[in-house]
């Protein structure tokens, strides 16, 4: 192909590809891929396409500007868990827009992730301090899904045998809808009660949700409900506003067992609903029930404090159908931003912001009351509900005239929420919308206009004194040491320097596709027309967003061979769940209530089984043969055994072993013949795009990973987007939302239950994938696939004489990743897969995926973004490490004291006065001469994982620990 963006995105040029093809024995890249991909599933490039020809970077940005201009930049005062916020510029520039933070991978290699792990420890400390609970995890996907996870924690932690979960009638509407959808699948009965008005709990229940403050803004004391729930053996989940908790009693202080919510208003832009970092904290005794990721403090080989992911056996890769949650990601980049917002402002600054917010709400309320309007509650923090009998629409329309979005509750009630961005002039305009005279406000602005002053208002005037916070919070020095711009900038730089991200070098992770996230793709994320848009804004205010979303839905449908795409799932795990829930909905609509068995190959990604269980299905494992393919005989036997119960088969293509299975059409046909549906996991679409389509393989539904194949960055472990794509018969069961601007999509009307808190999920980062597809075009996407497959096969060929390549297809080729078997190395030399992974750090690399899907192996995926020089550097490192292992086997270095066993080596370790190792300091840190000028120095030595789990500490350690 010629020119354009694809030539910059794809790292290998024609000359490099010729070199690689010669090593493989193929005449062209197309010939290689066509040999690897079974001919029975290949598709030729379409003569006509819904994807327009590739645009230049300038053209794509210009088109995005047009779309952005179609979003009305109104002032959102809708609330319901989403607020406008001011992102400190030092955080926007040095975190959100900094590739050192947004191109990092999940911190599974903790020695080279100490910066983001420290930021996440700050996040966890912030959450535990504000909620008054013992342990917080490293973020959730959003508030509503966090509530669902809280419900599941309560079910596991309660001693009650009941299936009843009580939901506060004043919970957020999106949360109530999501709870209903998710609870039905796992047999939980929801009972909605007006808890604030004293509704009595049922005699038997396992949990209660209270919203604090309520969706209506009402602040009340849940202590009585908590006590009654505990007497019944139930656990209490409090969905709490973190900013409000700087002024209100914490959930821990009134006895809540679990606290959940969102950290969005801590400097994270609205983004039409996401991505945002949800949070979860639990009381002591429930920490091992926490879903998702948990960062803990351990120590390295020198005894120094070091951070790493704690209790990793909770990861869904390991627990599979026994997993208690299907979440295998978090929202790291957004959690970092929220934690740094707390570091930047400190406890006094956060309290001042919250006090100002409360004053603004009280000033507006007082003014409205003085003109005879009544409020639904006089106890509130930032949200009021105003009685407007028969006039709600008129009030909202008047507000829109002035550029403000209020919330229509019903014909007799309007909701107004204020935030840190709200000004006195905004309050005056809102008061005018309610009919107050414009010329009788309480003060004068700088230009002489009449404004509604809030400086003298009493915050929390209607809230009982017993609910005012007296507990201290954020006392750790990290939240009290970075008041100047200089100090904050240097702290962020210090942390990013401790990490390894794509801005340093290749991250060759199989299964997780760490490709380039180009700057032009990222540019529009920060534009206010995209970033400062409320997810429940009126349809007329978001035409640009809706047009972009529809275009992306159409493009993704075309490249996958499906009819409909929902972009609502905000992670791959949620896309899996949405697809399985669509299958569940389809079978139930057809009266097939007994179809609950989900067949899953033994090689599958762990979240497949966990998602199936959460969709109310029973997992039956299908064996794989020695080549890593689905065992057709076992599949047919399992289908025959469960023919009347078969709901679905989940299969990953290419397989989790990195191979194109030649029997895939036979597999899917056998399932369809038995009345089941086929779920094709889209994790490996990077090896298929442009050459084959899931819908043509017999797939009925798939999730895609936009953070893999479509260039959304991993952000250190999140954000992600996991759209669900389906054939027309499943489209009616794709996710809908009670507050969505529209139910009709390019592929039909979606009427399934919601899967995420916002109608369009993490819409704020969809401009990234839109720009990627727009600039690559259909031809560029196909070329990217070919380049990725070429790079993986080149590495496999170059390394196979040093490390066996575990699985290949019938033609000896792999897909976009290859599995290097290190088990023979361990047997011959004693050098483990861990040793190789840690030694790669000394060579300047992030390790490939370790021990997945096979223990004792490395799964390598170079992606299409890496150039031949970087690929050769990795190959050179792996060959050199094999030679080092051979020296151990030969007895030149002892097994327990050699460069691999002691890796990684810090600067401190090699400048120490004592050096009693049998290899030189230069061998330790400069095993290849080219590292001398470009060395990445890990900040800690190898971390003791077991020590951290035995001594579980998940909050900021005292400064003395680092002395």
From TrEMBL:
<feature type="domain" description="Glycine dehydrogenase C-terminal">
    <location>
        <begin position="784"/>
        <end position="905"/>
    </location>
</feature>
<dbReference type="GO" id="GO:0005829">
    <property type="term" value="C:cytosol"/>
</dbReference>
<dbReference type="GO" id="GO:0016594">
    <property type="term" value="F:glycine binding"/>
</dbReference>
<keyword id="KW-0663">Pyridoxal phosphate</keyword>
<dbReference type="InterPro" id="IPR049316">
    <property type="entry name" value="GDC-P_C"/>
</dbReference>
<dbReference type="InterPro" id="IPR015424">
    <property type="entry name" value="PyrdxlP-dep_Trfase"/>
</dbReference>
<dbReference type="GO" id="GO:0005960">
    <property type="term" value="C:glycine cleavage complex"/>
</dbReference>
<dbReference type="GO" id="GO:0030170">
    <property type="term" value="F:pyridoxal phosphate binding"/>
</dbReference>
<keyword id="KW-0560">Oxidoreductase</keyword>
<dbReference type="Pfam" id="PF21478">
    <property type="entry name" value="GcvP2_C"/>
</dbReference>
<comment type="similarity">
    <text>Belongs to the GcvP family.</text>
</comment>
<dbReference type="InterPro" id="IPR015421">
    <property type="entry name" value="PyrdxlP-dep_Trfase_major"/>
</dbReference>
<dbReference type="GO" id="GO:0019464">
    <property type="term" value="P:glycine decarboxylation via glycine cleavage system"/>
</dbReference>
<dbReference type="Pfam" id="PF02347">
    <property type="entry name" value="GDC-P"/>
</dbReference>
<protein>
    <recommendedName>
        <fullName>Glycine dehydrogenase (decarboxylating)</fullName>
        <ecNumber>1.4.4.2</ecNumber>
    </recommendedName>
</protein>
<feature type="domain" description="Glycine cleavage system P-protein N-terminal">
    <location>
        <begin position="7"/>
        <end position="434"/>
    </location>
</feature>
<dbReference type="InterPro" id="IPR020581">
    <property type="entry name" value="GDC_P"/>
</dbReference>
<comment type="subunit">
    <text>The glycine cleavage system is composed of four proteins: P, T, L and H.</text>
</comment>
<feature type="domain" description="Glycine cleavage system P-protein N-terminal">
    <location>
        <begin position="479"/>
        <end position="747"/>
    </location>
</feature>
<comment type="function">
    <text>The glycine cleavage system catalyzes the degradation of glycine. The P protein binds the alpha-amino group of glycine through its pyridoxal phosphate cofactor; CO(2) is released and the remaining methylamine moiety is then transferred to the lipoamide cofactor of the H protein.</text>
</comment>
<feature type="modified residue" description="N6-(pyridoxal phosphate)lysine">
    <location>
        <position position="708"/>
    </location>
</feature>
<dbReference type="InterPro" id="IPR003437">
    <property type="entry name" value="GcvP"/>
</dbReference>
<dbReference type="InterPro" id="IPR049315">
    <property type="entry name" value="GDC-P_N"/>
</dbReference>
<dbReference type="InterPro" id="IPR015422">
    <property type="entry name" value="PyrdxlP-dep_Trfase_small"/>
</dbReference>
<dbReference type="GO" id="GO:0004375">
    <property type="term" value="F:glycine dehydrogenase (decarboxylating) activity"/>
</dbReference>
């Amino acid at each position: 192909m010629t020119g354009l963006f694809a030539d910059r995105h794809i790292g290998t040029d024609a000359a490099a590809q010729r070199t690689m093809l010669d090593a493989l024995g193929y005449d062209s890249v197309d010939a290689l891929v066509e040999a690897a991909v079974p001919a029975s599933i290949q598709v030729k490039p379409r003569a006509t396409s819904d994807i327009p020809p590739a645009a230049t970077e300038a053209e794509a940005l210009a088109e995005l500007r047009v779309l952005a201009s179609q979003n009305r930049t109104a002032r959102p005062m809708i609330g319901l868990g989403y607020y406008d916020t001011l992102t400190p510029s030092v955080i926007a520039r040095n975190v959100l827009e900094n590739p050192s933070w947004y191109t990092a991978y999940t911190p599974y290699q903790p020695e080279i992730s100490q910066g983001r792990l420290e930021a996440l420890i700050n996040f966890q400390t912030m959450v535990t301090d504000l909620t008054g609970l013992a342990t917080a995890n490293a973020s959730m996907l959003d508030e509503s899904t966090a509530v669902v996870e809280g419900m599941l924690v309560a079910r596991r932690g309660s001693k009650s045998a009941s299936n009843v979960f009580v939901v506060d009638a004043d919970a957020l509407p999106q949360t109530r809808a999501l709870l209903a959808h998710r609870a039905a699948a796992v047999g939980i009965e929801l009972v909605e009660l007006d808890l604030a008005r004293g509704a009595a709990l049922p005699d038997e229940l396992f949990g209660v949700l209270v919203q604090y403050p309520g969706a209506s803004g009402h602040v009340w004391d849940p202590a009585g409900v908590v006590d009654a729930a505990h007497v019944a053996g139930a656990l209490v989940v409090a969905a709490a506003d973190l900013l409000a908790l700087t002024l209100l009693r914490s959930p821990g202080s009134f006895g809540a067992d679990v606290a959940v919510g969102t950290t969005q208003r801590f400097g994270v832009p609205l983004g039409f609903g996401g991505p945002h970092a949800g949070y979860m904290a639990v009381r002591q005794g429930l920490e091992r029930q926490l879903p998702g990721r948990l960062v803990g403090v351990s120590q390295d080989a020198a005894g120094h404090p070091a951070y790493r992911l704690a209790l990793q056996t909770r990861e869904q890769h390991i627990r599979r159908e026994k997993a208690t949650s299907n979440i295998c990601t978090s929202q790291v980049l957004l959690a970092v931003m929220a934690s740094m917002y707390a570091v930047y402002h400190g406890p006094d600054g956060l309290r001042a912001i919250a006090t100002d917010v409360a004053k603004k709400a009280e000033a507006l309320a007082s003014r409205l009351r003085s003109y005879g309007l009544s409020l639904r509650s006089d106890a509130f923090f930032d949200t009021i509900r105003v009685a407007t009998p028969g006039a709600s629409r008129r009030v909202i329309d008047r507000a829109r005239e002035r550029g403000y979005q209020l919330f229509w509750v019903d014909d007799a009630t309007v909701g107004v929420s204020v935030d840190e961005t709200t000004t006195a002039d905004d309050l005056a305009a809102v008061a005018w919308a309610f009919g107050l005279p414009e010329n009788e406000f309480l003060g004068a602005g700088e230009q002489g206009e009449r404004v509604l002053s809030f400086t003298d208002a009493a915050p929390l005037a209607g809230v009982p004194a017993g609910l005012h916070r007296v507990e201290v919070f954020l006392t750790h020095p990290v939240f009290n040491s970075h008041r100047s711009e200089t100090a904050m900038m240097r702290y962020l730089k210090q942390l990013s320097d401790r990490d390894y991200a794509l801005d340093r070098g290749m991250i060759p992770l199989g299964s997780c596709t760490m490709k380039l996230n180009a700057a032009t793709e990222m540019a529009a994320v920060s534009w206010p027309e995209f970033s400062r848009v409320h997810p429940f804004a009126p349809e007329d205010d978001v035409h640009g967003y809706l047009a972009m979303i529809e275009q992306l839905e159409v493009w993704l449908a075309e490249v996958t061979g499906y009819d409909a795409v929902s972009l609502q799932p905000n992670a791959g795990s949620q896309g899996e769940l949405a697809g399985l829930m669509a299958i569940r909905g389809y079978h139930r609509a057809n009266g097939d209530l007994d179809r609950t068995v989900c067949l899953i190959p033994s090689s599958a990604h762990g979240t497949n089984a966990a998602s199936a269980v959460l969709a109310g299905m029973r997992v039956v494992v299908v064996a794989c043969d020695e080549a890593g393919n689905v065992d057709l005989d076992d599949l047919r036997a399992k289908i025959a055994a469960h023919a009347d119960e078969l709901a679905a088969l989940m299969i990953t293509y290419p397989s989790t072993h990195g191979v194109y299975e030649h029997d895939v059409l036979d597999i899917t046909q056998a399932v369809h013949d038995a009345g089941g549906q086929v779920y094709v996991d889209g994790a490996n679409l990077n090896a298929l795009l442009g050459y084959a389509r899931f819908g043509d393989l017999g797939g009925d539904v798939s999730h895609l990973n936009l953070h893999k194949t479509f260039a959304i960055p991993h952000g250190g472990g999140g954000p992600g987007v996991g759209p669900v794509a389906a054939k027309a018969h499943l489209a009616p069961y794709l996710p809908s939302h009670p507050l969505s601007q529209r139910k009709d999509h390019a592929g039909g009307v979606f009427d399934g239950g919601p899967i995420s808190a916002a109608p369009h999920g993490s819409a704020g980062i969809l401009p990234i994938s839109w720009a990627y597809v727009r600039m690559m075009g259909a031809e560029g996407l196909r070329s990217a696939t070919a380049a990725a497959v070429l790079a993986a096969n080149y590495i496999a060929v170059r390394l196979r004489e040093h490390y066996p390549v575990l699985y290949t297809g019938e033609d000896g080729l792999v897909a976009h990743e290859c599995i290097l078997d290190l088990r023979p190395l361990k047997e011959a030399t004693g050098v483990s897969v861990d040793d190789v992974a840690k030694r790669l750090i000394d060579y300047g690399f992030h390790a490939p995926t370790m021990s997945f899907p096979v223990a004792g192996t490395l799964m390598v995926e170079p992606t299409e973004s890496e150039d031949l020089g970087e690929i050769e550097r990795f190959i050179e490192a792996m060959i050199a490490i094999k030679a080092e292992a051979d020296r151990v086997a030969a007895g030149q270095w002892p097994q327990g004291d050699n460069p691999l066993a002691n890796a990684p080596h810090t600067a401190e370790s090699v400048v120490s006065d004592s050096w009693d190792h049998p290899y030189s300091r230069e061998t330790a840190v400069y095993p290849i001469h080219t590292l001398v000028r470009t060395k990445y120095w890990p900040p800690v030595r190898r971390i003791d994982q077991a020590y951290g789990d035995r001594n579980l500490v998940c909050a900021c350690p005292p400064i003395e620990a680092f002395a």
